[in-house]
Amino acid sequence: MQRYYADRAPEYDSIYAKPERQADLRLIERWLPEVFRGRTVLEIACGTGHWTQFIAPVAAGVVAIDSAPETIAIARARVPPAKVDFVIGDAYALPDTGRNCSGGFAGFWISHVPKSRVREFLRGFHARLETGAKVVLLDNRFVEGSSTPIGERDAEGNTFQSRSLRDGTTHRVLKNFPTESELRSVTEGLCSELRYLAWQHYWAVEYVAIAA
Q: For residue 164, is it within any domain?
């Protein structure tokens, strides 16, 4: 997965250019920053900083973590340097950044987490946040004709896509599409005030984190 996103870095943002997704994206771009206004935000899997660029201007600060230096290099060029600290790190073993974060954001990451590890990830994530921090998980809904087809499913129920890059390589990528009930189940006991939002191509959950 890490190698795939490192190799994909130069073409990553093309996913946000799909014409059928533009109306959803404009709505999310207006909604998401307001959730984090005035907060210090820990962002997981920031990638090329596509969402960081909307959060950073209104946040008190952002700590943006990704495992690929290649994507972080692109992200650095699109956000105010005084507002964002970039950290190369592992989402399953988050480093202590020394910042008190009152917000947490994971965009298009949960879909790449095996079902058996989602609660493990969330516990580690919440452990790096203040008690009562506001959290948003944002990801894709499966839409026939827009989403990459699902090629296989394992015994645990994880789904996989076959993705090709411009260099001609093909990659097997874990990509899950959880339902609202699955998201409520996997976050049970880890959060309060959960709100599920859905657009045509995307979903989000907004909640208050409970300490791990």
A: no
Domain of residue 63 covers 2-142+178-209
How would you class 203 by CB atoms within 10 Å of its CB: exposed for 0-12, middle for 13-18, buried for 19 or more?
buried
Largest Cα–Cα separation, the chain: 46
137 within a domain of the structure (yes/no): yes
Strand partners, 203: 139, 198
Q: What whole-number distance in Å separates Cα of residue 98 and Cα of residue 87?
A: 12
User: Residue 82 is part of a domain; what is its CATH number?
Assistant: 3.40.50.150
**Residue 24 falls inside a structural domain:** yes
Read off the tokens for 37: 């206004």
What is d(CA 67, CA 200) in angstroms, rounded to the nearest whole number? 29
Distance between CA atoms of residues 121 and 123, nearest Å: 6
What is the domain count for the chain? 1
Which element (helix H / strand E) includes 17?
A: none
Of 42, 59, 53, 60, nearest to 80 (Cα)? 53
Radius of gyration of the chain from its Cα atoms, rounded to whole angstroms: 16
3-class secondary-structure state, position 184:
helix
Confirm whether 152 is domain-assigned.
Answer: no
Each residue's pLDDT tens digit, 135-170 = 999 999 999 999 999 999 999 999 999 988 777 888
pTM above 0.90, yes or no: yes
189 in helix, strand or coil? Answer: coil
